[in-house]
Amino acid sequence: MDRFRVEVISKTLNPQQVVYGALHQDYSEGFVFDDRESWPAESKCGELIVKRLLAGERGHFGPIEHVQIVFNCGYFPHSVMQQVRTHRVGISFDVQSNRYTGNRIAQAAQGLKDIEDVFYLRPVGHYLDRQGKRYDYTQEMREKDLSWCIEAAKRYQQLLEQGVSEEHARGIIPFDVRQHFVVSFNARSLMHLLDLRAKPDAQLECQKLCDLIMPHFKEWMPELAEWYEKSRLKKARLAP
What CATH number does the domain containing 198 carry? Predict the structure, then answer.
């Protein structure tokens, strides 16, 4: 999991002021754009967002949807993509499809790229299944799985050399091939994803994705993120 990355491509500037403008228009008689010079500072707007929209379980999330942040996420296993795209998250993805991008798999087969840069295996350790049963994932088990990944990469390379398309050849590669993706959120959908995937019983790798997202959220909308961290993070209070 030390290979996982989350980087910001773009984000709405002064996002808490933007949200303030939206909530301000809800109850203002005038055209709020005309008095922008008198809007509170970014941090004060964040405090007002929490006070007027969120505190006391008001749950008025609509104005929060006006701001957006776009992440580039790298080296996550395919299973993470399956999980984060479910349950009405309301986010947009562009993902390596392995329909056109298979060169890294062939390179791994040739020893030109570390096999673990291409396929993900969990670290050795103690785990629980979905029913709470404990088990050990040993170094011996992991080495066998790694060998299988190498053999699958070699077979993939053979298929390409025989003229088989990447779209066809990808069917034999291990499920948890690593994928890079770009994903965009509004502030509400970002919190919804964190509700779903940061909770303690979520898939381990999805929790790690959330761990890497949170520092960016705190930097982008600090007052809102602070409220979220205290009120909702890891508490499984779903669907804002």
Answer: 3.30.1360.170
Angle made by CA atoms 156, 114, 148, in degrees to the nearest 5: 50
Place of tokens 């799985």: 145
Report the interhelical angle of 42-49 vs 222-231 (nearest 10°). 30
Residue 239 has a pLDDT of 57
Give per-residue pLDDT as tens, 156-178.
Answer: 999 999 999 999 999 999 999 99
b/e 61-83 (16+ beta carbons within 10 angstroms → b): bebbebbbbebebebbbbbbbeb
Kindly give, in sequence order, each residue whose CB lies less than 8 Å from that of residue 235, ignoring residues fewer than 6 positions away. 199
Max CA pair span of the chain: 70
What is the β-pairing status of strands 5-11 and 178-186? unpaired
> Domain span at residue 208?
5-72+180-231
The reply to whether 237 falls in a domain is no
Low-confidence ranges of the chain (pLDDT < 50): none
Q: Are residues 51 and 66 in the same domain?
A: yes
Q: In this structure, are residues 50 and 223 in contact, taking their beta carbons and an 8 Å threshold?
A: yes
Residue 49 near residue 19 (C-beta atoms within 8 A) = yes
CA–CA separation, 240 and 195 (whole Å): 9
- What tokens does 207 get? 């929790």
Those residues whose C-beta lies under 8 Å from the C-beta of residue 115, and which sit 6 or more positions away, are: 108, 146, 149, 150, 153
Domain count, the chain: 2
